[in-house]
Design goal:
By secondary structure, the protein is an alpha+beta fold. It has helices at residues 3-13, 19-38, 84-107; strands at residues 43-45, 49-56, 59-62, 69-72, 75-82. It has a three-stranded antiparallel β-sheet with strand order 1-2-5.
């Protein structure tokens, strides 16, 4: 799902909102999340998951062309950890797909 797909879905689900208003709401939420992460804060959405910033320490790497060692600097990267409900929901869907495939293999 893309950002524009989300805007269209929300606009359809909530008919009282114009698509322009829905687009503004989605942009505002995502901007607030980005701003919060850039400040180093953790975001937790119960039943969905949490976002936090992880630190990748500096390390030595290699230039693939010359084989020369290169220092790769420290990085701060966003990380998403799914919540229990999301993990179980995704697993249930995958489990149902596996059962359908197993039944098709037995029949076929």
């Amino acid at each position: 799902m893309t950002r524009s797909d989300l805007v269209v879905l929300l606009a359809e689900r909530f008919g009282q909102l114009a698509q322009r208003d829905t687009e503004f709401a989605v942009k505002t939420i995502l901007d607030a999340m980005s701003d919060s992460l850039s400040r180093g804060h953790r975001i937790e959405i119960r039943g969905f998951g949490s976002f936090q910033v992880n630190r990748r320490p500096p390390r030595m790497g290699r230039n693939p062309r010359s084989g020369e060692q290169v220092l790769i600097p420290e990085k701060l990267v966003p990380h998403f950890k799914p919540g229990k409900a999301l993990r179980e929901g995704v697993d249930a869907v995958n489990g149902a797909d596996k059962e359908v495939l197993a039944a098709q293999q037995i029949k076929g």
